[in-house]
Amino acid sequence: MQIRLTVLAPPSGQTPARACDVLVTAPAGTALATVASGLAMAVAGPDGSLGSGAVVLFAGRERLDAQRCALGEPPLVDGAVLSLQAPGEDETVDDAVPARLQVVAGPDAGGVHLLHGGTIRIGRSAEADVPLDDPDVSRLHCEVTVSEDGRVTVADLGSTNGTSLDGAEVHDRPVRLAPGALLRLGESTLRLASGARTPVLATTPDGEGHLRVARVQAAPA
Q1: Where do the domains of the chain lie?
Q2: DSSP secondary-structure letter at 170?
Q3: Domain 100-193's class?
Q4: In this model, does residue 19 exceed pLDDT 60?
Q5: Same fold? 2-91, 100-193
Q6: Backbone phi and psi for residue 77, each to the nearest 5 degrees, phi listed first
Q7: Cβ neighbours of residue 104 closer than 8 Å, sequence gap 6 or more
Q8: Residue 39: phi, psi to the nearest 5?
Q9: pTM for the complete prediction?
Q10: Distance between CA atoms of 158 and 156, rounded to whole angstroms?
């Protein structure tokens, strides 16, 4: 299982919190305690400026039990943001909701990836920010960029089988990726969900570090 976690170091004086994206490879169900020190070292950098002592991680304002919390289960799923040694911001009072890429078809169907801004590379490689287990997807297939104003674009990265957006071919020049649009690469299809607050959908962990949206059954007529 591979999931990407963003770890925030605590702010120091006038220095803002430092963030580091970490790709974690471990069996589903691995205790957070197994990788906690590695996450701390990743965000501390070579100078080890975070000091010594027990590693404490938070999801928002919730302190995580390193022995009980397991990788691949909420909140430790792909795209999660963790704070080191100090509580993070309470997401329930934050109006900024990240956009999401939902995998709606292909081997990874049901996966949900949060887009926190910047450039997100999609591909088959472990180096991709959104890895897809699709043999028809190139190692680094395409990239999605979220600008500061929330505008989302997509560009192909010279993939072998190409990228299409709502049936139109995407080249290396970025084009707008609108909410609800369907992005096709290989046998996989992804859909962008806007960052606007929407009714909460029931989700379940898939055992591989992603959340699957539960199917809603229509009531009998």
Answers
A1: 2-91, 100-193
A2: E
A3: mainly beta
A4: yes
A5: no
A6: -115, 170
A7: 182, 189, 190, 191
A8: -65, -40
A9: 0.52
A10: 6
pLDDT for 30-77, tens place per residue? 899 999 988 888 877 555 555 556 788 888 888 889 898 988 888 888
User: Looking at this protein, which amino acid is placed at residue 48?
Assistant: G
Q: Which of 6, 192, 8 is nearest to 83 (CA)?
A: 8
- Per-residue HEC secondary structure of the chain comes to CEEEEEEECCCECCECCCEEEEEEECCCCCEHHHHHHHHHHHHHCCCCCCCCCCCCEEECCEECCCCCCECCCCCCCCCCEEEECCCCCCHHHCCCCCEEEEEEECCCCCCEEEECCEEEEEECCCCCCEECCCCCCCCCCEEEEECCCCCEEEEECCCCCCEEECCEEECCCCEECCCCCEEEECCEEEEEECCCCCCCCCEEECCCCCEEECCCCCCCC
Q: Are residues 56 and 78 in contact, defined by beta-carbon separation less than 8 angstroms?
A: no
CA distance 22 to 94: 24
Computed on alpha carbons and rounded to an integer, the radius of gyration of the chain in Å comes to 18
CATH of domain 2-91: 3.10.20
pLDDT confidence of residue 95: 45
Contact 76, 29 (CB under 8 A): no
Residues in the chain: 221
